[in-house]
Amino acid sequence: MSFWTDTGKPVEPKRTYRFRLSSDGDIGLGATEKSYWWNIKRVDKPSFNVSSNKYRLINHEINIPGIAVWNPINIEMVDVGEQVDALLKHLGASGYNPRNLSEDSGIAKSHSGLLLNLTIEQLNGAGETLDSWLLEGAFITDVKFGNLDYSSDEFVMVTLTIAYDYAYLSTSSTGDSTMVEAAVPD
């Protein structure tokens, strides 16, 4: 008997290939409602760092936790159809206009520049959601349109780097949504 069943009920480990990514609207697929990004190859799950401040009291050094900083995530996807054109239009919707530099507007965290309700779901073998991460205030900070190479027959991959303010985690075991940024023990 394996150790996966030693807890009294069978436990299925999470698999890296069982996930889906969705948002309200979509980059390059023409959707305006909640849609799944079907061309995703890989996505990072949210992560954060807590800074540490050192204080000296006489002959002792004490570490005090500082602030939580959320790390950007990377999304790697296959370039399909009008993907590059759509990403450039998204940049324009964020306020980037190199042809008219005299405009007062610039790149801003406005409604049109955000990836609304960007959600990463981890699935079980039956396709049911185990964990769901909702990234608040997500926007694209970096786009790499891939490489071209005569010696390869691989797909062209587009890599996005996404910054966000904080993330909520919903799990299927509790059904509750937890804002990881402000998780305080009871």
How would you describe what is shown here?
With 186 residues, the protein is mainly beta. The chain has one domain (13-180): Roll (Pnp Oxidase, Chain A), CATH 2.30.110. Helix content is 6%, strand content 42%. The protein contains one helix and twelve strands; from the N terminus they run ββββββαββββββ. It has one helix at 83-93, and strands at residues 19-24, 34-36, 40-43, 47-57, 60-71, 73-78, 118-123, 129-136, 139-144, 157-163, 166-171, 177-179. Strands 2-1-7-8-11-12 form a six-stranded antiparallel β-sheet, with no helix packed on it. The chain is globular. It starts with 18 loop residues before the first strand and ends in a 7-residue tail after the last strand. The relative contact order is 0.19.
The structural class is mainly beta
CATH topology: Pnp Oxidase, Chain A
Order of helices and strands: EEEEEEHEEEEEE
Low-confidence stretches: 180-186
State the name of the first-level CATH class.
Answer: Mainly Beta
Query: What topology, given as strand order, has the largest sheet?
Result: 2-1-7-8-11-12
Indicate how many domains the architecture comprises.
1
Give the overall silhouette: globular
Using brief descriptors, characterize the structure shown.
mainly beta, 4-stranded antiparallel β-sheet, 6-stranded antiparallel β-sheet, Pnp Oxidase, Chain A, 186 residues, 1 helix
Give the topology:
Blueprint lengths: L18 E6 L9 E3 L3 E4 L3 E11 L2 E12 L1 E6 L4 H11 L24 E6 L5 E8 L2 E6 L12 E7 L2 E6 L5 E3 L7
Antiparallel strand pairs: 1-2, 1-7, 3-6, 4-5, 6-10, 7-8, 8-11, 9-10, 11-12
